[in-house]
């Protein structure tokens, strides 16, 4: 199968699709299995490339991985965890940011860890300074080498008190995965509290960890000397659900997203309604639809949970090109997440990006050289085009634009979308999209 999708757009997407477990939770729960003395079972696991990458890394470290794809059940047995060869780990360099989360569990299990250069989407610098600072504070020694980072913990890992400069999702997960088996108590202030992190806490608690989440983003962990395996059903993917919701809006369609859940999507649903989309929450999912008439422009700011998440922004921007008036979107999580708008402009969208913090509170990217605010003026018809997928969420947005635009678009680089959207071409077929993958 090649990397090109030819899309005949201009038709509404109508029908039902299912989303399974959240990419940004499943990969972390897989890493958590390394901490258990016995096997773990994770359910509702989607068939996406990130799961393959993490499975490969776990296998390299001696974990046996058995994945029943149709059932979505992943069995992970860490009984024989061992150090992997640097060259083998390095073969995974560039494919994901998850390896950095192996540090704490491997230090506990083996006393050392090697982490290759990290991949992930090109949506900003994406540094790992918070992660390394946290590991150092637990007592790890960090040695940067040409191919990656080597870590050791000659005196074990001890609980500590840390305040994050920013509520980073990954750094909070790093701390949780390290603190649960560190000696003594750890306290994290300014923690991220995304639903995916709460579900990771559920998993760790099932394994025997003692973790409390206080008000004002403070998480406290009492370290324990051993953890067991877990059995857990992953929470649904609220990013994928919102992407299909935006696709329904941009194509004037009607999509029932089985597996979408309301509590994790409150901020998205409010915004969806303000733009003029409608939704109906059912027990097994949410129906998102364009009720006809004009969409309305909005002012929007991305934020950490419980705010409007950054990953919801790009697909929604495509729908905003069809809204009447001026919409303003202020991106405050990543400094460089509007690159995907170049292609939309090429398709006829009227979008300008600015370095200023527009339409909201000043953020840490203001007064610097980051184009992190966008003004979208609509509605503008979208014309078919040749597009190259830039990153996961930007890529899905391009796909939505191609589906909304009249004529035949060519979307290149679509295997990037397989990283986080399970069998998306089958879902497009189920929704009546006209396309061919050649
Ligand atoms: N940051 C630092 N230093 C660090 C870590 C983060 O400065 O050591 C900064 C980042 O540069 C960014 C901000 O903190 O500006 C927030 O980054 P965060 O650590 O929260 O993001 P992440 O853990 O790397 C996860 C998801 C992202 C999602 C963000 C925010 C995974 C694998 N990735 O990234 O998902 O956008 O949280 O919710 O969980 C995606 O799914 O497409 C995706 C990019």
TrEMBL record:
One of its GO terms (molecular function) is UDP-N-acetylglucosamine 1-carboxyvinyltransferase activity. The gene is murA. This is UDP-N-acetylglucosamine 1-carboxyvinyltransferase. UDP-N-acetyl-alpha-D-glucosamine binds at residues 97, 311, 333. Keywords: Cell cycle, Cell division, Cell shape, Cell wall biogenesis/degradation, Cytoplasm, Peptidoglycan synthesis, Pyruvate, Transferase. GO terms for biological process: cell division; cell wall organization; peptidoglycan biosynthetic process; regulation of cell shape; UDP-N-acetylgalactosamine biosynthetic process. It comes from Sanguibacter keddieii (strain ATCC 51767 / DSM 10542 / NCFB 3025 / ST-74). One of its GO terms (cellular component) is cytoplasm. It is found in: Cytoplasm. Phosphoenolpyruvate binds at residues 23-24.
């Amino acid at each position: 199968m090649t990397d090109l999708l030819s899309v005949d757009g201009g038709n509404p997407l109508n029908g039902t699709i299912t989303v399974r477990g959240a990419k940004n939770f499943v990969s972390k729960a897989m890493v958590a299995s390394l901490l258990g003395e016995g096997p773990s079972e994770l359910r509702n696991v989607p068939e996406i490339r990130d799961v393959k990458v993490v499975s490969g890394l776990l296998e390299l470290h001696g974990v046996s991985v058995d994945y029943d794809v149709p059932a979505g059940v992943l069995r992970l047995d860490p009984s024989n965890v061992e150090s992997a060869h640097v060259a083998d780990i390095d073969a995974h360099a560039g494919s994901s940011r998850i390896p950095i989360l192996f540090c704490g569990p491997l230090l506990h299990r083996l006393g050392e860890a090697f982490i290759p250069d990290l991949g992930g989407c090109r949506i900003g610098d994406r540094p790992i300074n918070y992660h390394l600072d946290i590991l150092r504070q637990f007592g790890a020694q960090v040695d940067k080498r040409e191919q990656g980072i080597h870590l050791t913990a000659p005196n074990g890992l001890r609980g500590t008190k840390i305040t994050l400069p920013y509520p980073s999702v990954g750094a909070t997960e790093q701390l949780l995965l390290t603190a649960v088996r560190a000696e003594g108590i750890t306290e994290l202030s300014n923690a991220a509290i995304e639903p995916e992190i709460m579900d990771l806490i559920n998993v760790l608690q099932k394994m025997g960890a003692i973790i409390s989440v206080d008000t004002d983003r403070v998480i406290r962990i009492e370290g324990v000397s051993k953890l067991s395996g877990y059995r857990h059903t992953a929470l649904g993917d609220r990013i994928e659900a919102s992407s299909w919701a935006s696709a329904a809006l941009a194509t004037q369609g009607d999509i029932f997203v089985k597996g979408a859940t309301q509590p994790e999507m409150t901020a998205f649903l409010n915004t969806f309604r303000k733009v003029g989309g409608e939704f109906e929450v059912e027990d097994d999912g949410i129906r998102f639809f364009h009720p006809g008439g004009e969409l309305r422009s909005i002012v929007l700011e991305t934020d950490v949970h419980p705010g409007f998440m950054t990953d919801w922004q790009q697909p929604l921007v495509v729908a905003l090109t069809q809204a009447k008036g001026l919409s303003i979107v202020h991106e405050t999580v990543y400094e460089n997440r509007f690159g995907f708008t170049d292609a939309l402009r090429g398709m006829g969208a009227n979008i300008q990006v600015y370095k200023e913090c527009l339409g909201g509170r000043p953020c840490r990217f203001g007064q610097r050289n980051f184009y992190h605010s966008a003004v979208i003026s609509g509605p503008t018809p979208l014309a078919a085009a040749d597009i190259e997928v830039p990153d996961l969420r930007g890529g899905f947005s391009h796909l939505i634009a191609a589906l909304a635009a009249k004529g035949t678009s060519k979307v290149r680089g679509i295997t990037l979308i397989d990283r986080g959207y399970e069998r998306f071409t089958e879902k497009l077929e189920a929704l009546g999209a006209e396309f061919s993958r050649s």
